[in-house]
Design goal:
mainly alpha, two-stranded antiparallel ribbon, about 70% helix, globular
């Protein structure tokens, strides 16, 4: 007899129920999808304007080694990776994390704790935002278009490493999000702290090469090695547009550090979430 639920089956059930809910209100689903995609397309238009004034971004020399810079379609590959990762995070985790404080306030967290399944899994994945997958489609399409314009066909190894580090990026973003959401147990409504997630993840939207100089270098180091949001997009994007032959020390250390940062982030967020549950007081207590 099975003593524990099949987590894959539970996730598929969550996904199916969420799709049924979205299809019940098809008009709202279409509006959410189109508005999200429209925002992405407007941002893409902004970067098109930027590249009308400069051929490349990120010519950096303060690393003391070869400086990689991003051309127009190389940067669009970077942007497509940002869209893919953010879309997956929004689809799977965003709404669930934002509602965690409401579960605490209303006492509905009691019911989650009584379920015969891991509480963090249940809290993190009980709703799937299918409308956010529109940005995933835009990201994949933008990546394909950029590769065609560059005349570059990635190898199977590059694609495999790209997918691996996209998964690492999603895990790091999720870890930060669930850690901030867990503080709701101590602080009640922590909307300001949750907004902090958007502020610091903005640093992941740009190549780390643009952060240099007396102000940029400390920012790059802090958001790479302390709060590792810069490795979220930078590492996987490079595997699509650079050969697998390392050219600099950072070509070796950044991917290794991204894996380490993923493991540390998941472990730390898991500990913080479990520690916060120990401080939870039932609505009936």
């Amino acid at each position: 007899m099975r003593t524990h639920p099949s987590y894959l089956r539970v996730l598929l059930t969550f996904a199916r129920n969420s799709l049924v809910r979205d299809m019940t209100f098809r008009g709202n689903f279409l509006i959410e999808t189109l508005s999200s995609m429209s925002w992405v397309i407007m941002n893409l238009g902004f970067y098109v304007l930027v590249f009308q004034h400069t051929p490349r971004l990120g010519a950096v020399t303060d690393w003391g080694e070869y400086a990689f810079s991003w051309g127009k379609y190389e940067f669009f590959l970077f942007l497509s990776t940002t869209l893919v990762i953010n879309s997956l995070v929004q689809t799977l985790f965003m709404e669930n994390a934002s509602e965690f404080s409401e579960l605490i306030r209303t006492g509905k967290l009691d019911f989650a704790l009584l379920k015969p399944i891991d509480t963090q899994f249940l809290i993190s994945l009980q709703r799937v935002q299918w409308a956010s997958l529109g940005n995933l489609a835009v990201g994949v399409g933008l990546a394909a278009y950029s590769l065609v314009r560059l005349g570059w066909v990635p190898t199977a190894a590059q694609v495999g490493l790209y997918l691996l580090f996209v998964a690492c990026g999603v895990a790091i973003m999720y870890s930060l999000m669930i850690a901030l959401a867990a503080t709701s147990i101590w602080l009640g409504r922590n909307q300001s702290l949750y907004d902090f997630w958007f502020y610091i993840t903005n640093f992941s939207r740009y190549p780390m090469e643009i952060y240099h100089g007396p102000l940029g270098t400390p920012l790059r180091l802090f958001f790479t090695f302390i709060i590792p949001v810069m490795v979220v997009v930078n590492v996987p994007a490079r595997f699509l547009i650079r050969p697998l032959v390392p050219q600099t020390v950072s070509d070796l250390t950044l991917p290794a550090f991204a894996i380490l940062a993923t493991l540390v982030s998941l472990t730390a967020s898991r500990y913080l979430f479990q520690r916060s549950l120990l401080s939870y007081r039932s609505a009936s207590s």
